[in-house]
Specification:
alpha+beta; 12 strands; three-stranded antiparallel beta sheet; elongated; 15 helices; four-stranded mixed beta sheet; Endonuclease, Chain A; 19% strand
Length: 315
Amino acid sequence: MVDERTNKHDMRVECSPRRDRDIADLAARQHGVVARRQLVELGLGRGGIGHRFGTGRMHVVHQGVYAVGHRALSREGRWMAAVLAAGPGSALSHHSAAALWGIRDTARADVDVVSERRVRPRPGVKPHRARVPPDELTAVRDIPVTTVPRTLLDLAAVLSHTQLERAINQAEADRLTDSLPLVDLVRRHPGRRGVATIRAIMAEAEGGMTITRSELEVRFLAFLKTAELPRPEVNASLQVAGMWVEADCLWRAPRLIVELDGYAFHGSADAYERDRARDRALSVAGWLVVRVTWRHLHRDPGTLAADLRGLLTAR
């Protein structure tokens, strides 16, 4: 026979302020959502979970996934809820991953999630079944997600050549590098759908993949001369926030700096982080930093010239 006093004690523990704090802390880390399995790990049983539904402190988002405090979820909350609904080891993928990374936005209502296990389709979640190696997964704002190269590989199967090229260009412009670059990922998955498209895009950019920084500098200065834009100081040093930095091309009066970047997918993540910290320090000091790639020079010099002319005269 079940001891009624024991049940009442257990309910008091499950409904204690400490349990509420634990749930709130977990939800705060996960954009306002929690999974039932996580609540069980925190020590809640059916009664404690049901009590919080009854008092309006939790609301169902998906089966086994709940919003804490209110029903209104941010976009990140909806992404996280879909990943939790797909189960342990799942991650945001395809269109949704591209939107999280900022390389291609999407208006799709369904959230793309990849998982090694079979996931039952449900409203708002589009599951993809695949085994994704650990070095093709990461987290952004605490949301499990496929890496940028893996995201591009997945997109290659569902986008047109032009759409995929734009996504790759955006990733390159944002310098979203990874320890496993896209070129190596293509070699790892040679038979996947869309790999031929990626190879074609890379072949078009072959010059940018092999050009040296000194060659890029020569071409950029020649481009400025052709566009009748003022010549900058080259490899100029300046002091910012107590440290000396070297700028590839610098115009002092308009406080404009152009950094010349090679092909992003051959860069390192550490270099990306250092460059971003440096750019941030220069911005705080009143400098505008513009990054120019070989592809900008080769594919769209007219737009680049117009942009630089506007920046040099407006500042």
